[in-house]
Amino acid sequence: MKNYPLLDVRVSTPTLELRSATDELLDQLADVVRAGKTHADPAPYDDPMSFYETDPDLRVAKWLRAIWRRRGTVEPDAWRLYFVVMIDGRPVGEQTMTGVNFSTLGTVTTFSWLSADQRGHGLGHEMRAAILHLAFDGLGAKEASSDAFVDNHGSNAISRGLGYEPNGSEWATRQGEPALLNRWRLTRDDWEQRRRDDIQLHNIEACHALLPLS
């Protein structure tokens, strides 16, 4: 999209590609959302979350509206980049990164989900490694954080495997019920010890031109 180059930012690894979430790609990924392949047991999302909507069409509509609303908000205290996870040209999930007072603190948080039929093959780890490369190598982040419910063993294992350190816990609600979250923290120094040379960044100059990074 020549008039909004943030939608041309990409991150590629030997296994997958993160492509900026254009409406065309979201329209394709909506089939996964409509089919309920975002679900997991135990439920991994805190409230509010569109994926808990039982009506498939309303679920897609709420999901899209949330992305459109947040994708268009670019402020010094918070901005968010949305990516569609692509495997062999097929959309299979979503990976986001939010800058939190980035110009002052240099911190980001991440969120992701993967289609149920693609789990268990290491893609969650690869998605997170890709977005962290964008954060630290591409944008100069100082620190990344993540959280996951204590019973979300997959997400917690990914954080641990990528070098995050435990950073306390907090309560949230999940479908209206209280549930405990693990918080994780990854510093730039710890990321540098594990940084990879096979992840490529594309068109990231748009981030420097259009995001409040400094």
TrEMBL record:
GO terms for molecular function: protein N-terminal-serine acetyltransferase activity; protein-N-terminal-alanine acetyltransferase activity. The keyword Zinc does not apply. It comes from the Bacteria. GO terms for cellular component: cytoplasm. The keyword Transferase applies. InterPro entries: Acyl_CoA_acyltransferase, GNAT_dom, Ribosomal_N-acetyltransferase. PROSITE patterns: GNAT (PS51186). SUPFAM superfamilies: Acyl-CoA N-acyltransferases (Nat). It holds the Pfam family Acetyltransf_3. Keywords: Transferase. Residues 16-187 form the N-acetyltransferase domain. PANTHER family: RIBOSOMAL-PROTEIN-SERINE ACETYLTRANSFERASE. This is RimJ/RimL family protein N-acetyltransferase. It comes from Kribbella caucasensis.
